[in-house]
Amino acid sequence: MKKRKFIILFLLIINTADCFAQIDTVVDAQKSQNKKILKLASVNAVLYGSTMIGLYQAWYKNYPQSNFHTFNDWDEWQQMDKLGHVYSAYTMSKFGTELWMRNGIDRNKSIWIGGITGAAYQTIIEFLDAYSAQWGWSWGDVGGNLFGSALFTAQELTWKEQRIQMKTSFHKMEYSDPELNKRSDNIFGKSLAERSLKDYNGQTYWLSANLSSFFPNSKIPKWAMVSLGTGASGMFGARANLAKDNLGNIIFDRTNISRKRQWYLAPDIDLTKIKTKKKSIKTLLFVLNSLKFPMPAIEFSNNKVRMRWVGF
After folding, report:
1. Do 113 and 208 have their domain in common?
2. What is the DSSP letter of 164?
3. What's the CA gap between 174 and 172, in Å, rounded?
4. Range of 288's domain?
């Protein structure tokens, strides 16, 4: 228990230090903004610290702890967890940059602050993994964090907009086989919140391109997008659909179920291009734009093509 409390405290200290480093980066801002910057960074630290504690309680608390160690998990979950790291770092970079810009910080400074902290916040989670006996520090996860932040930062600095946006969608998986539902409850959790975080079978990650940004002289609506998505299914274990107890006895064996990857092609909507004068609605659309809008999709999987009337 003391080790767990120390890890949480260590992460909070790192996060707080990072927030004050953000303040140092913008010390040349107008003096009238200093209090606002300090308040924003403090709120940022508290919210992120609370999120980390919640994540620890939901994901790590019930698993044994160990010393710091690395772990090669590249072949787990069809790399869907790696895409989760890319998406999370990208989204946190985007939200962070927008937050600083809306509080009067120079655009380029906001981009660098948002981009760096997007990767840093995600990488801090690796410390929780590194001290967990079941996981470890993953260089694949760290690479995903850096790539996600770079995807956002590079576009902002080059194009001054996000022409290619990363989004996600999720649907809770339900099976006709009671054994699969029980297995899912055991390893992914029963609540929708836990499932959306842990169940990679129900997650899809998308790259949505804004067509009018690439063809500015065309008559394509500014909100029109086309999305390429990927997901995976049939996963009831990290590497295989097989589980054993501490004595080596097989307690779950569904190796007869294929672990498949799916690819999707679908239209999408850029909600931020919907015109409105109300700031509250504009903010809501900005946040919701990180989620893939449900639309018909063409699925490519197992050497077959089929139509999905609603693609998640």
Report:
1. no
2. E
3. 7
4. 162-312
Structural domain count, the chain: 2
Q: Which residue matches tokens 């790291």?
A: 85
Q: Which residues have CB under 8 Å from 48's CB, separation 6+?
A: 15, 121
Cα–Cα distance, 267 to 221 (Å, whole number)? 12
| CA-based end-to-end distance of the chain | 40
Six token digits for residue 104: 């009067």
Complete DSSP assignment for 272-308: GGS--S-HHHHHHHHHHTTBPPPEEEEEEETTEEEEE
Residue 225 bridge partners (DSSP): 210, 268
What are the structure tokens assigned to 7, written together?
């890890």
Q: Who contacts 144 (Cβ-Cβ below 8 Å, separation ≥6)? A: 82, 83, 84, 85, 86, 89, 122
Report the amino acid identity of residue 144.
Answer: G
How many other C-beta atoms lie within 10 A of the C-beta of residue 150? 17
pLDDT digits (tens, 9 = 90+) for 37-73: 677 777 777 777 777 777 777 667 777 888 989 989 9
* Distance between CA atoms of residues 290 and 189, nearest Å: 24
Judge if 263 and 120 occupy the same domain.
no
pLDDT at 144: 95
Q: Are residues 108 and 244 in the same domain?
A: no
CB contact at 8 A, 203 and 84? yes
* Phi then psi dihedrals of residue 169, to 5 deg: -145, 160
- How many Cβ atoms from other residues are within 10 Å of residue 241's Cβ? 18
At residue 31, the pLDDT reads: 54
pLDDT for the residue 138: 94
> Quick one: 92 and 179 in the same domain?
no
Which residues of the chain, if any, have pLDDT below 70? 1-34, 36-37, 58-59, 311-312
For residues 123 and 193, membership in a common domain is answered with no
Q: Which amino acid type is present at position 150?
A: A
Query: What local confidence, expressed as pLDDT, does residue 107 receive?
Result: 92
